Amino acid sequence: MRFPDFFKCAKRPIISFEIFPPKTEKALENLLQVIPELIELSPDYITVTYGAMGSTREKTLEIASLIKQHYNMETACHLTCVGASQREIDNILIRIYKAGIQNIVALRGDPPRGERNFNAPADGYSYAYQLVEHIRRFERTFIGQENFFGIAVAGYPEKHIEAPSLEEDILHLKRKVEAGADIVITQLFFNNEFYFNFVTKAKASNISVPIIPGLMPIVSVRQIKRITSMCGATIPPSLQEELEEAIDDDEKASEIGIRQCIKQARELLESGVPGLHFYVLNKSQHISRIMSAIKPYIYPRS
Ligand code: FAD
Known about the structure:
- 48% of the residues lie in helices and 15% in strands.
- By secondary structure, it is α/β, with parallel strands linked by helices.
- Strand 3, helix 4 and strand 4 form a beta-alpha-beta unit.
- The mean pLDDT is 96.
């Protein structure tokens, strides 16, 4: 089932989890134990990220295929423009197609660590909209079927870190949607006002596809500080203050993260969002508690 099919006529919010291919064999073993626990929570689909470079890239498709084949759960492969020529992108798309995966999260990717600007690889792309156009072209020429894939693209409620303004970033988001994206999944945020404002501005720019809020439950203070400093998401002062008390205590940080995530998720669900995308960080315990707490908001009559 493709992204747009989930959201078309949905009678309840669509729930998705995002996991990443681990770098070590031990972490992979651990993920393979966590996957059935995540599936037990009945998300609608699971997406698997694409590494900056190197061996974890191979694992994106492997893990997405395993979840789809073994657990009969819909999946999506993330794909970036980093280090890939158009021919290499075609080769990856052929493999995704042959594996029976029907959804792709199409991204530009980040510049290599230490570099400020993203330089397009030889015969490759500079922006995600070009990757979206490429995928739509590939469907016509290789598969012979329009809109074979469901395509998601990234949105940034606090603007993308390189964008001069939110308004300009939204213009570029519009280009991704016009190129053929079916849904937008947002970067994490800790203040729902950013999301509400972003959606209002996107709608005013005639972006009409579903915009799915992305929520990341905090599991470690150091980790969330690293992630937010890289992606430009802000931590509100009150949450920051709470987290300072848990700097060396992941259990405490996790409790704060669960509380924060439930609060945000409930408010978003009450406002009528089309779905929620959780960055679950390859763990299940925290998301299991979050899902229990928000279940009445997802299935109001169950
Ligand atoms: P783009 O949409 O291309 O935008 C990048 C920048 O260029 C923005 O500042 C935009 O405003 C600007 N821009 C766009 N078009 C134009 C134009 N025509 N002219 C001038 N400027 C333009 N990274 C990974 O490496 N692997 C992953 O699996 C991954 N998954 C992600 C999933 C989600 C839901 C999100 C939100 C992010 C993910 N990322 C991932 C991170 C993402 O790759 C980075 O945020 C990256 O820096 C930007 O990617 P993008 O697709 O948004 O790029």
